[in-house]
Design goal:
375 residues; alpha/beta; 7-stranded mixed β-sheet; 6-stranded parallel β-sheet; 18 strands; 29% helix; 25% strand; globular; binds zinc ion
Length: 375
């Protein structure tokens, strides 16, 4: 069938919305009508080449939609189901999966680099030219063929904008706090970067009982939103005195620092403002080839724990419905993350607004309703 998709033909080029050919879902695959797709910094890293991905490709990996058709042997979803899309359809059988760490699935991480679906197949093309999938989803489109294991069924009537963000930013930010760091009630937290991921980490830290939460963010409107969502202090990331401000406020360093942005200098700053024995969790993916430099003696003497977290170390089938239930109970105000909505043809504008920080989280609505002011 034909559908509309935003294609990235080459690095540093604007995305082009084009009519593309979508093959029928193969065995274990599902065709999803995409209702909403968040615009994530990882997509931008693919545009700039900071994170290499096979091109041409249809980007987008933060989506929600409704199942339209299923391939052979699909058992977990049916046409009409509302789904959050997981960009890490774990195999379930590799060592990492067996250890309960599906976000490190060896099969999925290898296949993701190939730009295919998990079984190695491709379902997108344009006038006979193969288009690569991106993170197994390619949600900057009206339809997508995805692996059944990417489909996390959620209740009918779930807000599809919120559900889309749960597909990446929200699960990544909250998961960093509750799955990776497993913070304790009463602890002190710093969050560097208050975009969709950082704001989610802030909400997760409040949910988990942190006593103080400091947001460090250069954009004023995002600092205001951070305070609204649970931060107890918001510091301007451009201020050279930010490290001292953090040390003063936390009486010598925070227990946990979450780095929800890519620059490695932020990991180094997070290390400096974390108290001895504390934990630094890197969430944002730095550019390919970048290196973090840490002071050697302090690394030993301070016994700080430095770790990363990929996709919030989540088990999507468990964590995503749980997060949406907490949202429904009013304990996670995720709807505040939804910023301006865009039509598919406005995807390049959505990227520009994401980069300037003028919108909390830019959301594409590929079936039309765009150019709103958001909620
Ligand atoms: Zn993402
Ligand atoms: Zn696996």
């Amino acid at each position: 069938m034909k559908t509309e998709a935003a294609v990235l033909w080459g690095v540093d080029e604007p995305l082009e919305v084009a009519e593309v050919e979508l093959a029928a879902p193969g065995a274990g695959e599902v065709r999803v009508r995409i209702e909403a797709s968040g615009v994530c910094h990882s997509d931008w890293n693919a545009v700039t080449g900071a994170s290499a991905t096979p091109l041409p490709a249809v980007l987008g990996h933060e989506g929600s939609g409704v199942v339209e058709a299923i391939g052979a042997a699909v058992t977990s979803v049916s046409p009409g189901d509302t789904v959050v899309l997981s960009w890490l359809p774990a195999c379930g059988t590799c060592r990492a999966c067996q250890q309960g760490r599906p976000s490190s699935c060896e099969h999925a991480t290898r296949q993701m680099a190939a730009g295919s679906l998990p079984d190695g197949g491709f379902r997108l093309s344009h006038n006979g030219t193969r288009l690569h999938h991106y993170s197994f989803l390619s949600t900057f489109a009206r339809h997508a063929i995805v692996d059944e294991r990417s489909c996390i069924r959620v209740p009918a009537g779930t807000d599809t904008d919120v559900a889309a963000l749960v597909g990446c930013a929200v699960t990544t930010g909250i998961g960093a706090v509750i799955n990776r760091a497993k913070i304790s009630p009463g602890c002190s937290v710093a969050v560097f970067g208050a975009g969709g991921v950082g704001l989610s980490a802030i909400m997760g830290a409040r949910l988990a009982g942190a006593e103080t939460i400091v947001a460090v963010e250069p954009v004023g409107s995002r600092r205001a939103l951070a305070l609204e969502l649970g931060a107890t202090l918001a510091l301007d990331g451009k201020d050279p005195a930010v490290a001292q401000g953090l040390l003063d406020y936390s009486h010598g360093g925070v227990d946990y620092a979450f780095v929800a942005a890519g620059p490695v200098s932020l990991v180094e700053l997070a290390f400096a403002v974390t108290r001895p024995g504390g934990m630094i969790v890197a969430i944002g993916v730095p550019p390919d080839g970048s290196v973090v430099t840490l002071p050697g003696p302090q690394l030993v003497r301070s016994e700080k724990i430095i770790t990363g977290t990929f996709y919030g170390s989540a088990r999507p089938a468990i964590d995503m419905p749980m997060i949406l239930r907490l949202h429904a109970q009013g304990r996670l105000p995720l709807e505040k993350l939804v910023g301006r909505r865009y039509r598919l043809g406005e995807v390049n504008e959505a990227f520009a607004d994401m980069r300037s920080g003028s919108s909390a989280r830019s959301v594409l609505r590929p079936w039309g309703e765009g150019t709103g002011t958001g909620g």
